[in-house]
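$ fold --in a.seq
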Amino acid sequence: MTNFFQNIREGENYKYFSGGEWKNNKSGEMIDIKSPIDGLLVGRIQALSKEEIDEVFSYAKEAQKKWAKFSFEDRAAILKKAADTLRVLVDDFVNMKVLEVAKTKASAKNSVLRSADIISYTADQIETANKAEVFYSKDFPGASDSKTAIVSREPYGVVLAISPFNYPINLAVTKIAPALLMGNSVVVKGPTQGSICTAMLVEVFNKAGVPKGVISFVTGKGSEIGDHLVMHKYTDVVNFTGSTEIGKALAKKVGFKPLILEMGGKDAALVLKDADLDLAAEMICEGAFSYAGQRCTAIKRVFVDRNIHDQFLDKLIEVTKQKFNLVGDPRKDEVQLGPVISEKQADYVQELVFDAVESGARIVLGGIRKVNYMEATIIDKVNKDMRIAWEEQFGPVLPIIICDSKEEMIGLHNRSQYGLGASVFSKDIGKAHEIARQLEAGVIQINNKSERYPDSFPFLGVKDSGLGTQGIRWSLESMSRLKSIVDNK
């Protein structure tokens, strides 16, 4: 790690960021961060107290009032400097992401550079962010008086940004950049696993010129500070990405505050009998096994037409052998598939596999696990009564479910508690769109894997997959509220 980050740590202990300073907590209590690669210590993060959290929010509340007076141009200039700095420091971030959350080098680099692009693109949206609309009463039928409403956007105040382990930089950036551009201050709660990456990101914004107190970084035990963070009197908005279980519990506690939730998914790929099977196999393979399936938008089940099942399965197995055959230490350039985040998670994924096999499913590829390293695994002949057909595995395991009609596929898809993304594979684009309109999901891809990219598109989930809409334009809107000033003449 370069000297750029020398202030964020002392030895193996990483600090928290409050009032423009990197600090150590008073208790000295730390949390060990161990690498999923080999279980060795990466570093230690601070276990903050409620009192220290209060101090952070006090700084954030006061700083926001001054930040809101900055022009959009000045805020955007700071964001652009942060983006440029992130690109320069890409290797530092890649090395830490590989070590801390076990991304492969290629995946880590792509994610960091994409994060820089998100910051830059956000900074370019000054016209959208600062747009004021004018409405006239004369346009309303029957209006007898003359009124003019000037409608603009104002910051909420303090945004609490909670990011997940799988994208500790990218999904922090999608929250931080829009919030800052709109004039909010941001308190970033890093994921326990991934906090060091997030601390590095906060230092980039700090050195780019974000004023003291406008961005803060906190860490700690969720059981001790989680409720205090979301229920804090100075928390004006909560923007959370994580599990459905935690997100639903959080929603009950937040109270009368704006809430943006991105939660779990059980994204399905529907492979119709007229699909381009080479394309479908390629896209589904990448969608299912990239980053060992640890993505909310990963393809987590496949509905395939019985008439083309055998041919499709052969192609899927072949392309998976080519793309995700090398399992091992992601610090090695040739490795295609690293470990899942923990042994506990590997235990859960394996439990779903065992349940399916005991109920009659068949492993046709992979199935071997060593500690928290799992091979890319394809399970065929999964039926609707098996747990893996419905539960989010969050690992490199893909169940195949044979269907007799598109109606059966739609019905099975919509029975899920989740509704994040989906994919429809068919050469008949009209039919694909017809099916997509019937699927209960936020984003449906036609002839592609489910994904969030590009970040200029709206991204959302329905049912237990989320609340609110993201994507840069929509994130700017969600990080601000309308104010209407009415002139009477």
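$ fold --in b.seq
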Amino acid sequence: MTSGTHAKTKSIVITVVLMVVGGLAPAIVMGVLGWKSAVSVAMLGGLVTFLACTMGRGAQTGLIIAVPFSLMTALAVWSAPYALAAAVVLAVAAFLRGYGAKAGLHNALLGTVIALGFNVADPPNFDAAVPSAVLAGVVILVTTLWVSVVVFLARRWVHPPTLAPMGTPEALWFGSILAIMVGIATWCVVHFDLGHSGGWIILTIVVVYQPTLGAGFKKAGARALGTVVGFLIAIIVGVFVSSGPVLYLVGTVFMIAALVVMIQGRPYWWFAAFLTPAIVLYESAGSTVSKVAAERLEATLVGVAGTLLVMLILL
């Protein structure tokens, strides 16, 4: 094994370990303690913060988003029953993510809007005297701070990318268009009660729409291709394991594979092809793989089609 290959392998292993210790540990602990309602919130928050740190400016990015992300999560859960309020909350979050391009942080902040979208589409319900919105915000705050501390302690092994800041007019335009699309999509998701599938529509819009239209069209094609390939992989896995806890283990393998592909800088459709079966298998533990995969594919293609339509109009 050459020194370059050894260094890359070591980097991948360290990143996976940090993802588990930082991004997934809070969700695992809450699951062990029996606080099941908090597991999905903590998992989303942990993974989003970990990606924000590794794709942004390290632990500094985690600390910067900790309070705003927590407040926006609380507002998202509170507004979930109200279409207009939810649309406004998500539109504001989408604009802030887009405006983050001014500092080159638009990729790092991508996951925050996605997490908020799922919390609106399928809000957590805590069986407690304290409102669910407040508890969700607290879970995100604790999780975000935990991940930031882990990344800070492991800073010698974390190597954030070189960021490419964008001009103020371009960042404002990018954030404004993204806010409009996400706001309209969120209103539809809540008004028509699309549930978890609605979260995938929001996710696809946030992922596909890029600061430049050329990059956006390329991302749309890659997203669609990767989702279809991932859908086929999930169906094949479902033939052998249709439901049950084993799907969590298989899903985790695909999730790690998706992370490795991202770290190695492989084409985006590779990442989508591994991420799709990971999420489908996670969600299928209480359902069936074929049903969840079909819903996932449909929602993604709807999101891609809507985003492409907007970009064609902008042309």
